[in-house]
Amino acid sequence: MRTFPGWWLLCVLVAGPAAAAPPRATPVTTPAPAPASVMGAGSVAPEVQLCLQHLKPSERDRAARALGPLESVPRYRVQLEVEPKERRVWGKVQVELVAKGPAPLTELYLRLTPNARSRQVTLSGAKLNGRAVTLEPGPEPTLLRVAVAPPVAPGGAVSLEVAVKGTVPRAAPGAESLAGLGGLMGGGGKQGGAEDHGAFSATADVVSLVGVVPQVPPVDGQGRPWAGPQGQGDLALYEPAHVLATLTVPAGWAAHATGTPLGEVPERDGRVRYSFAAAAVRDFPVLVTRGYQSATATVNAVTVESHFAPQDAAVGKRVLKYASQALAEFEKRLGPLPYTHFRVVQAPLSGGAGGMEFPGLVTVATSLYRAKGDSSQLLAGMPGMDEAMQAFLGAQGAGLMAQLGDSLERTLEFTVAHEVAHQYFAGLVGSDPIRDPVVDESLAQYAALLYIEWAHGPQAAESLKQEALVMPYQLFRMSGGKDGRADRPAGDFQGGEMEYGALVYGKAPLLHHASRKLVGDEAFFKALRAYVDTYRFKWACRTCFTQELAKASPVNAKALGALRTRWWEEAHGDEDLGGGDLKGLMDAMGGGLGDVKLDAQTQQLLEELIPQLMGQ
Predict the structure, then answer these.
(1) Distance in angstroms (rounded) separating the CA atoms of residues 468 and 577
(2) SS3 for 473-504, per residue?
(3) C-alpha span between 200 and 212 (Å, rounded)
(4) pTM of the model
(5) What number of CA atoms fall less than 13 Å from residue 522's CA on the CB side?
(6) For residue 400, what pLDDT band results from cuts at 50, 70 and 90?
(7) Helix spans in 107-256 (H)
(8) pLDDT at residue 17 in the model
(9) Disulfide engineering: 472 pairs with which of 506, 511, 540, 562, CB 3.0-4.6 Å?
(10) Of the candidates 298, 299, 293, 297, which has an alpha carbon nearest to the alpha carbon of residue 316?
(11) DSSP 153-173
């Protein structure tokens, strides 16, 4: 997830000139493609055959080598009905899995991430292998427990069925406008009151149902489920699983989910039933929209879709271009995405989130779609800001607002690339986003920066590195925040999204930049590709990428370990990125105002603006 803490507006106000415009692509608006032909008859069950349509034929053997027989992968059957006007969802979910591990299976957990704040989704009528069982509260609000009695021996099959019912809360105020970049006012997450960033919320035209499908969380060596949502960062990640889903919505609405679309069937009551089949995915997001338009493109046998509100059609098509370009670049260097479909859906995110990632589907904030169109609206409603900003604009010139618009467009492209990179980290190469958020977020952030370099050149990448990674850290320090260890669980960032963003999104990705400079491009990109190939569909550790770098450059193994310690485990940010003062910030902005000599009045205005942007 790409977040925009409270200091982000200042970043774009003082950022460097826009990167070179990318080459134009012309997305074509098309209907949903027909499903691919089902695999030939054999030992694989028909349901699994349907799911495997979501994997490229060339990727099925690779998936089986990583996961074992694809028939033994956990399988979910999902049937949901949605009533958007009443913000209600109901249905049933069945999960079938094979008991693994050396000991018999004695309990199962189900996670419902919408219940992190309050009980918004309930489960009832649980049946284990066809027998009624009791759902017990788990060790945290998002978990429910089922005792497995008698225990199931390793290799035995388990089937758990539950009825699902939920009421979707209204989206945070302003989530569909520029106010959706709410992190501008002092950070999102716990401080902003939007702990899931709108992942489970509803507006008049969008119902986001992320987390409504109960899923079995991974467990540690002692059988304890992994930790759930912490109020900042991502929500959860699961073992790869197959999913067959039907989603029934009123006429005029459309359903979006991960997987290959299996068609739309009109019901007698006027509603429409959508069906999807997904294979070896670590989550299954569901969104429902009204009146959206779509544009599609094809990248190396992947159908890329962009879904957007009609008023944002021009931006929605640019989002398709950015997503397609990023995927093409990543497939060249990281290996093929295994899935046949990838979707980007415009959604009313809140709490400062620019996007949220899920396997095969990502959301990008409506606020980003509308930001460049009227960037001056970003300043509306900021206490004490109008007079100060007018004075600042008067000092800097009217061209600053145009620069702001350009920076917002760069932010949109960078955010899309970041979410596409998450298809690899941690969608394909799994890692624990709660215990070890620095693993996937730092790689997704640096991969997005690499995309900018590949698409627009080293100068554009260097400028964006300063704007998107270095300046957030410096502004966090200017607000009084303290540098610290980046490699820690999401819940351990007591400074909220401001601290989390500065250390996980700002400082931590630059470990990879330092490692690249140490070993050189040939070894770095060899290691990055080896990392993806080695851990496809598996779980990577927090040191696994450093280990691959050491294999590619053995002479630098010790130095690589020292770099990882320095950037992720210790507090050297001021030395490496610059300290928390205005002069240090301006000096670091080499492509922006770093060479500009500010007069006393402008410097005073900037010093006044920063605390207000921080919400202090």
Answers:
(1) 12
(2) HHHHHHCCCCCCCCCCCHHHCCCHHHHHHHHH
(3) 8
(4) 0.89
(5) 1
(6) low
(7) 189-192
(8) 38
(9) 506
(10) 293
(11) PTT-EEEEEEEEEEEPPBPPT
